[in-house]
Specification:
Elements (H helix, E strand, L loop, with lengths): L8 H15 L6 E6 L6 H11 L11 E6 L4 E6 L1 H7 L2 H15 L3 H19 L15 E3 L1
Parallel strand pairs: 1-2, 1-4
Antiparallel strand pairs: 2-3
Helix pairs in contact: 1-5, 4-5
Length: about 140
């Protein structure tokens, strides 16, 4: 299995392909991070991971982190200040609700891909791809302890 027990290798590849496809239409970046556990408030952990991975260094502050915590059975979508200013903070709750609906049915990959597509569409709307659209952040899922 890839990404521990959350996703099979095929599902992980499907999610990574969804990130790559979403990023083709935008200058923004989407990053998925899978943690085994989290002992601090989830939002604080998202901020820490966001900064540690350098997602805060994008010129237009338009990166989005999807943080999954296996043991806690929690997740959060964290958007940098540029994109959050455009979509509003409640948008991330809308994405969370779509993911959660699928997750409750045991459809982890489907929920993750639905969230990626939603986020990608908003990013493309507000930050459309330019001629030279460099992929600044690797599309692979990061797995940490």
């Amino acid at each position: 299995m890839g990404a521990a027990n959350l996703l099979t290798r095929d599902e992980q590849q499907r999610a990574e392909a969804a990130v790559a496809a979403a990023e083709c239409a935008t200058t923004a970046e989407i990053k998925i991070v899978h943690l085994r556990w989290c002992w601090v408030p989830l939002h604080a952990k998202a901020v820490e991971v966001f900064h540690r991975l350098g997602l805060d260094r994008a010129r237009e502050h338009n990166c989005v982190l999807i943080l999954l915590v296996e043991t806690n059975r929690e997740f959060v979508i964290y958007g940098d200040r540029g994109i959050t200013a455009r979509v509003g903070p409640d948008y991330w709750f809308d994405v969370r609700d779509v993911m959660g609906e699928h997750f409750r049915k045991g459809q982890m990959a489907t929920g993750l891909c639905a969230a990626i597509e939603m986020v990608g569409a908003k990013l493309a709307q507000h930050y459309p791809a330019e001629r030279a659209n460099e992929n600044e952040i690797d599309d692979s899922i990061v797995r940490e302890q």
